[in-house]
């Protein structure tokens, strides 16, 4: 058995030999003969539909994606028409939104068509990921323009400035890079290795925005590739079907949009982290520590994984003394490497501030942010200091996350170390006051590799991915204020996405089964029966 666990204690495993049912669950071998052989599925249909959706997003991105002011693209006649004419912006908005939702449906249908998760399913998932990624690799940045800030931070390093001390607003002509002005004064939250990479990109491209975006996408693609390789391997260590885990973690549209189209450096962070955890789970602890350290050097949040690497290294029957010694050794190796890594370009240990001094504020769709808003409103209505109470609630939730991490570090089955790691990561993200759409992708690969059941667990993932795809479709659109539109682009995208979501939930005979069982007439009968039962109970 490996440190990460074998067929014990995971969400999808059962004792003894087993076979998969059409729902993706496992049955004992004795029950298998009663199952009819699964029908042949035309998997390529879902793959081609997803490719069409990604292609629509590529075209739509030209009119509503983020193009840097210094890009020669903005002088091309087709681009000008799609970005300055009402019809062009409207068409681009609809294409981008429908394409994203079609990609969502294709992901769901791919899972349904591969419901037996047989021996060729892994190949089918990899083909789908490749086909859906290709148009997004060439698209104008969508759903975020952080990738342009990476170029600015690379320029800072090249010019001898410290990104941990100053923002990109200190650069000459920084606005032409395409970065969001709201972040121009902020210090970088990234690790030294990513700053090395950003400097290398700028050195190769001369800070030309379009070529820089492509290179940053290729860097993110390395992270995607690492996930494609190691998520199935990590899943199989836990008795989980690798193809299904890869479909959940990497083929989902939020992953592909955030890590390919938006080129977030989180892709490389997650890829290195997954690879590092796999190496540690297969008892190659030093390699695991170094890979996780490389992940920290991209974005420091994965420092959270080190204690769980130490749990695996300490071993099954380790005493508390050995555990603390191994935790110290794990942290010592990682931090020593990072300290040496700060010597080039005089970066030092500036990355530590990203952990110690998080971004202030909250997002309204995070559990902490949403609950805080409701508490603040209720407090103000009652004449209480609502804002203060809301701040206390958010602070309490952050401390609760720290408490859960400590609990999972010190308590739990050794064979479930990777599952404990996944839950700790999820707690830190979900109880934080600030959640960006791609933050949930930090822990989903680890949950997928240790088991996400075909019940409320997978439904929560469907809801989360759909919500953030819909949110991103209407929140991050680049539209000039002087363009005259019958309906503003954000509202058009939101309505389009909601209509498509309604189609998936109610009208589509295939996808509606995933969240709500039965036919619409059955829902009405169940609802009416519930009303009658309530009336009888009150008599």
From TrEMBL:
It comes from the Bacteria. The keyword Transmembrane applies. The chain crosses the membrane at residues 43-67, 87-104, 125-143, 214-232, 244-265, 285-312, 324-343, 392-410, 422-444, 485-506. It is a multi-pass membrane protein. Residues 1-26 are annotated as: Disordered. GO terms for molecular function: glycosyltransferase activity. The keyword Nucleotide-binding does not apply. InterPro entries: MptA/B-like. Belongs to the MptA/B family. This is DUF2029 domain-containing protein.
